[in-house]
Amino acid sequence: MSKPFIGITSNYIIAESGRSLGQERYFVTKELVDAVCTAGGVPVAIPIINKEEDMLNIMSNLDGIILSGGYDVNPIYYGEEPSKHVGFTYTPRDLCELFIVKAAIEKDMPVLGISRGQQIITVAFGGKLYQDISENEEAYLNHMQRANINDIGHYIDIVPGTRLYEIFKVNRLLVNSFHHQAVMAAPANFLVSATSSDGVIEAIEHKYKPVMAVQWHPEMMVKNHPIMIKIFEEFINRCK
Known about the structure:
Blueprint (H helix, E strand, L loop, with lengths): L4 E5 L1 E4 L9 E4 L2 H9 L3 E5 L5 H8 L4 E4 L23 H17 L3 E4 L1 H9 L4 E2 L23 E5 L4 H6 L3 E4 L6 E2 L6 E7 L4 E6 L4 E4 L3 H4 L7 H11 L1
Parallel strand pairs: 1-4, 1-5, 5-6, 6-13
Antiparallel strand pairs: 2-3, 7-10, 8-9, 8-11, 11-12, 12-13
């Protein structure tokens, strides 16, 4: 059986120094590429483009989509104006990924959201985000850990009976944490499959479609915490 082609959405950056000063770039991280390869898939970088026909042509050659991490989602796309806490946003990426999620659903294409990817999925299905976790009065953990991104940050509690539980077979798991925004509530037809100790939503999954997302960065943890490869293995098995 041939390996499935896994599209990874690109992040955006502007070079701030050196000979490439001011150059705009789209990129995917080495850790995500490595995780897909290790789990048995073929990674394919998806550029940020807003021509729907071209994006559909790209997707027609893919077996699954990973929505990668990155900058804040513009609150305009979930019916709010940006608060003073919102960081850098990039409209072309927001629009591109919102289209990708909706197109993937129509195709029954498996989708895995990571960090920002969970937030994009939530917005695509009509949900809302905390523009900053400080808006959630019950949140007390440090969700922007002061440690290497491949290190652990806090525990999550996994809901028995969910797809995430079937992946890890444990009720509790240590994850890394690098986010200041979060899902306010799971959108319609989604389950919350994991929360942090202070109740912040750490994973969601669709009740009927092959769509799930996590708030942490499992790809960054794989080297030191090999259990995290299970997320990618299960996802890629669904893409075959």
